[in-house]
């Protein structure tokens, strides 16, 4: 029996890499003296398929070398303690990155061509959109009718579980609110991961915070 509908393996690989090259990837360097802060921010960035963490810096002395070596599109600087001299860095010849500066008063300070200020009120979605849009903190216009096709397979129970996980509830608390067992909740979560192509609870929490609206689940 001859099978003629399967593409050669080389063609599949070439198509995959062509798609990778066509997709825009935003390279960002993370700068903070807090390892905990860096770890949390990295997890957020890793959830975005088109954002790549190019480098991480915790020592102000190595900041310039990092920018020269990794040439990121963006540098996120946690400058709450004013440890990093962002102004002189941006003023240097050959500096082609945009700096996103996180401070206590960020947002009240004026942005410039290469410096964008954020603060504690900046949401994850706003930060991601700053990176993808260059400057604007507003989300790009989207067609509300377009959804992940897999999302339509989410049942009402799974939808409710996603909402509760996004709210920070534990499996035990979710089971109590749904009137079911923790084992059943875990089975639902596994099913949700498979349907949405997610790997862990953190990704699901972020997904839920960004995408949950009423009336989207299957009956």
Description of the structure:
The chain is of the alpha/beta class and 219 residues long. The chain folds into 2 domains: 24-133, Response regulator (Rossmann fold); 149-211, Arc Repressor Mutant, subunit A, CATH 1.10.10. The chain contains 9 helices and 5 strands. It has helices at residues 9-22, 35-46, 63-70, 86-91, 124-133, 156-166, 171-178, 182-196, 201-211, and strands at 26-31, 51-57, 74-78, 98-102, 115-118. The chain has a 5-stranded parallel beta sheet with strand order 2-1-3-4-5. Helix 4 (86-91) links the parallel strand 3 and strand 4 (98-102). Helix 6 packs across helix 8, helix 6 crosses helix 9 and helix 7 packs across helix 8 (182-196). 19% of the residues are buried.
Q: Outline the low-pLDDT stretches.
A: 1-7, 136-147
Structural domain tally: 2
The tally of strands reads 5
Profile the largest sheet: 5 strands, parallel
Labels describing this entry:
disordered N terminus, 219 residues, alpha/beta, single chain, Rossmann fold, 5 strands, 5-stranded parallel sheet, elongated
Secondary-structure map:
Layout: H1 9-22, E1 26-31, H2 35-46, E2 51-57, H3 63-70, E3 74-78, H4 86-91, E4 98-102, E5 115-118, H5 124-133, H6 156-166, H7 171-178, H8 182-196, H9 201-211
Parallel strand pairs: 1-2, 1-3, 3-4, 4-5
Helix pairs in contact: 6-8, 6-9, 7-8
């Amino acid at each position: 029996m001859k099978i003629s509908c399967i593409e050669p393996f080389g063609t599949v690989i070439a198509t995959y890499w062509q798609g990778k090259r066509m997709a825009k990837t935003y390279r960002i360097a993370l700068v903070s003296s807090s390892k905990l802060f860096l770890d949390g921010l990295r997890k957020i960035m890793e959830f975005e398929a088109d954002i790549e963490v190019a480098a991480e810096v915790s020592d102000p002395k190595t900041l310039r070398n990092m920018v020269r070596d990794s040439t990121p599109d963006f540098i996120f600087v946690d400058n709450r303690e004013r440890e990093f001299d962002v102004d002189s860095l941006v003023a240097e010849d050959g500096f082609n990155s945009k700096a996103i500066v996180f401070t206590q008063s960020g947002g009240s300070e004026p942005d410039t061509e290469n410096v964008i200020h954020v603060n504690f009120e900046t949401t994850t979605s706003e930060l991601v959109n700053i990176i993808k849009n260059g400057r604007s903190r507003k989300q790009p216009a989207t067609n509300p009718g377009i959804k992940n096709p897999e999302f339509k397979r989410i049942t009402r129970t799974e939808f409710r579980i996603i909402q509760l996980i996004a709210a920070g509830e534990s499996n035990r608390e979710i089971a109590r609110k749904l009137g079911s067992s923790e084992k059943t909740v875990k089975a639902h979560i596994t099913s949700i991961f498979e349907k949405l192509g997610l790997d862990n609870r953190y990704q699901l929490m972020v997904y839920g915070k960004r995408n949950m609206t009423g009336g989207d689940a299957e009956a």
